[in-house]
Write a structure and sequence with these properties.
The complex is a heterodimer of chains A (about 375) and B (about 325). Chain A has about 375 residues and is α/β, with parallel strands linked by helices. Chain A is about 35% helix and about 20% strand. In chain A, helix 1 (about 20-25) links the parallel strand 1 (about 10) and strand 2. In chain A, helix 9 packs parallel to helix 11 (about 305-320). Chain A is globular and about 55 Å long. Chain B has 16 helices and 6 strands. Chain B has a 4-stranded mixed sheet, with helices on one face. Chain B has a two-stranded antiparallel sheet with strand order 5-6. Chain B is elongated, with a radius of gyration of 29 Å. Classes of the chains: A alpha/beta (about 375), B alpha+beta (about 325). The interface of A and B includes residues 287, 292 and 334 of A.
Chain lengths: ~375, ~325
């Protein structure tokens, strides 16, 4: 990411009629633009690169707001995904997007502006419900913000609604657009964190942990609520010392009282990802452990390894602050109970817990 | 190119002539897509009924005859020691390479399914003449494959990179496609060594996949080459153990490799089994752990012939003191 630049823009037929696309093109005056049909570039032309240098402005035909695809076997947080782009300029070895999408390029949905109305209508017509919405599931929320200006579009709308929070999740320090905005309420800026070892070896293109936390501190000073995600937690040599270093860095930069939640999720993946990682990241050590088939068909660490990871990180985060809003991502009732000392029992229970955190931070 | 294959075919009618079989190359040539077939049924049919449909040949720029349609028939007739047969012959000026290829493809599709090696041959040959998008959209479905880029890439690699012996095993249905896909992740020497092990001990489809995944995992996790893994003494000992038959060797080998990848899981399984067997359970009573210990519940299995026997066994079970101490094997007393 530090040296990232868009080398080419692919403009789907009809996309240029959207004001959002026009604004993006104005921000890239020197970048060559090529017109594409909706069926073109339907597959990876270059599997190694995945089209990370190509910004593809497309018209999205599907829903923009979707529930996070949880499974009944594990407890899910009941998050809603605002689907505004797919793929990511960062190149983390463990990224599920490598096998999740079969289309290349950094695809940005330029009809978002028009379709956002529908999303907001859904939110407004359910005033009793809290919508926890995120944009960082299928892309990094801020990596392209300097080009797309998405924060300009989203913050004013989400900031004024009382039954929603918008979480922008990133591994970058691209916070200029956020800080320049006058909107703070109901906006959560979140960083994915890992051990320095994993961050340096596996999170290609992401900025260092220190830079992430420096950016987080600026956002906190500016009045944004913060979230953190230790996801994926990775079992590796000296993992305890390494994760402690990250928690120590957090302590140096962040006031824990302004954190809405911290999630913990151990590395898990669809089996198909394994061969992609071996091929695209032959130097990676991310697969060096005991991965078993989980109840949802994904590969995950053997249970006691996950329990070691969660228990250790929990203990140290809670030493830092007794109530950091810890929750587990896609784990069982049993693991919750054994590692966090309590359990929401099911996905509804976890939703209630997180909704309550929203109420406590955004009064 | 003319898009009506039938009209191309019909235009070649009426030019049958006798051809000496020795004037036709033994190799399939640029248009035929036959691999790993059993020629004997065709020979029996030709012996009994003779040649019903004449092969179609093309005289190439060097005045040599290439087969467009009828490769198997010609091979069968050659092995029956026939001298000459009637063939239809066209000139290279009448049909383009792609038209020859498509004639062969559709002729084959009309009466048989391609095996997986042949599908790779078809796709690679088409890829010289037809844009990738068109292959994906039109030709993959003809072959019963989904229009999926990585699937196309896999079949192209299968054709280009796999050794003939491995291809034969795929065509014969011995080596699974999944296993061959995993083998393609290895370098040539490693691939052949693993393939030889699979062939020698006759791994079934699931075992092939397991073996290759274990080997790739060990190689990846421990930075060992595949040759080093296969040369390991304990693996060699299993393979050469004359007290075991092949299925026993396969089980033993897979168990040994699995314990290298899953040391904690293997320990947990051993500990649990040891604990359960020390309980002195009544006969016909078993306790099972969930797969990988992932689900939270263990399972009790009781075999019984009558209600009385069931009751007796339950009563005996309830008196076994150690039962209440059963727990996840990694849990400690502290």
């Amino acid at each position: 990411m530090p040296g990232f630049s868009v080398k080419k823009v692919l403009l789907e037929e009809g996309a240029s009629e959207h004001a959002f696309a026009q604004r993006i093109l104005r921000r890239l005056p020197e970048t060559p633009v090529q017109i594409s049909t909706p069926t073109e570039s339907g597959e990876y032309a270059d599997e190694e690169d995945m089209g990370k240098g190509t910004l593809h402005l497309v018209i999205h035909k599907g829903d923009f707001l979707k529930p996070c695809p949880g499974t009944k076997e594990y407890i899910c947080c009941g998050y809603q995904i605002l689907n505004l782009a797919t793929n990511c300029p960062l190149d983390c070895s463990y990224c599920i997007l490598q096998s999740y999408f079969n289309q290349p390029n950094l695809r940005v949905f330029v009809n978002l502006e028009e379709e956002l109305e529908q999303v907001l209508q859904t939110i407004d017509s359910n005033p009793e419900r809290i919508f926890r919405i995120g944009t960082g599931e299928f892309t990094d929320s801020l990596a392209l913000d300097h080009i797309t200006g998405l924060s300009d579009l989203l913050l004013p709308e989400f900031s004024k609604r009382r039954n929603t929070v918008l979480e922008l999740k990133t591994k970058t320090d691209k916070i200029k657009g956020l800080v320049a905005s006058k909107h703070r309420d109901r906006i959560i800026v979140s960083w994915s964190l890992n051990s320095p070892y994993i961050s340096a070896r596996e999170e290609h293109g992401a900025v260092s942990l220190r830079k992430r936390l420096e950016a987080a501190r600026i956002c906190q000073t500016e009045g944004f609520a913060l979230g953190f995600h230790f996801d994926p937690l990775v079992y590796h040599d000296n993992w305890k010392e390494e994760y402690l270093k990250t928690i120590e860095l957090m302590d140096r930069y962040i006031d824990p009282k302004g954190i809405i939640w911290i999630s913990l999720g151990s590395f898990r993946f669809m089996p198909e990802l394994k061969s992609v990682i071996r091929k695209r990241h032959p130097e990676s050590s991310i697969l060096n452990s005991e991965f078993i088939f989980g109840l949802d068909g994904k590969m995950r660490y053997f249970k006691p390894i996950r329990m070691d990871l969660y228990s250790f990180v929990r203990e140290n985060l809670e030493t830092w602050h007794p109530n950091p809003g810890l929750y587990l991502c896609m784990e069982s009732n049993e693991i919750w109970q054994k590692c966090l000392g309590w359990s929401p029992k099911n996905s509804e229970g976890l939703s209630r817990f997180l909704d309550k955190r929203v109420g406590e931070i955004f009064r | 190119m003319r898009d009506d294959i039938m009209s191309i075919y019909n235009n070649t009618e009426g030019s049958s002539q006798p051809v000496r079989l020795k004037d036709i190359e033994d190799q399939p040539g640029p248009y035929c897509m036959s691999f790993g077939f059993d020629i004997e049924p065709l020979k029996r049919s030709l012996r009994r009924a003779g040649l019903i449909n004449s092969p179609l040949l093309i005289k190439n720029r060097h005045e040599q005859l290439d087969i467009i349609i009828g490769y198997r028939r010609i091979q069968a007739l050659k092995s029956l020691n026939r001298d000459s047969i009637s063939c239809r012959i066209v000139s290279y000026s009448e049909l383009s390479d792609l038209e020859c290829l498509l004639l062969n493809l559709h002729d084959n599709l009309s009466f048989r399914e391609f095996n997986d090696v042949e599908k790779g041959m078809v796709l690679r040959r088409l890829s010289s003449w037809v844009p990738r998008d068109e292959i994906l959209e039109h030709y993959m479905p003809f072959l019963g494959l989904s229009s999926h880029g990585p699937t196309l890439d896999f079949f192209l690699k299968l054709d280009e990179e796999l050794d003939e012996k491995i291809k034969e095993s795929i065509a014969e249905g011995h080596l699974s496609l999944h296993a061959s896909k995993l083998l393609l992740e290895m370098d040539i020497d490693a691939r052949l060594s693993v393939f030889q092990l699979i062939s020698k001990l006759k791994f079934n489809v699931n075992q092939q996949k397991q073996l290759i995944e274990y080997i790739l995992d060990i190689s990846n996790n421990n930075q060992e080459t595949i040759s080093e893994i296969l040369e390991d003494v304990s693996l060699k000992n299993i393979c050469s153990d004359t007290r075991m038959n092949n299925p026993q060797k396969v089980h033993s080998l897979l168990r040994m490799l699995r314990s290298r990848i899953f040391p904690r899981l293997t320990d947990a399984e051993k500990t649990f089994k040891r604990t359960a067997s020390a309980l002195d359970l009544p006969g016909g009573v078993r306790i099972h752990y969930p797969p990988f210990f992932e689900a939270p519940n263990y399972r009790l299995e009781i075999f019984f012939k009558s209600g009385k026997e069931l009751k007796d066994k339950i009563e005996r079970l309830s008196r076994i003191k150690g039962v209440s101490k059963l727990r996840d094997p990694w849990e400690t007393d502290t």
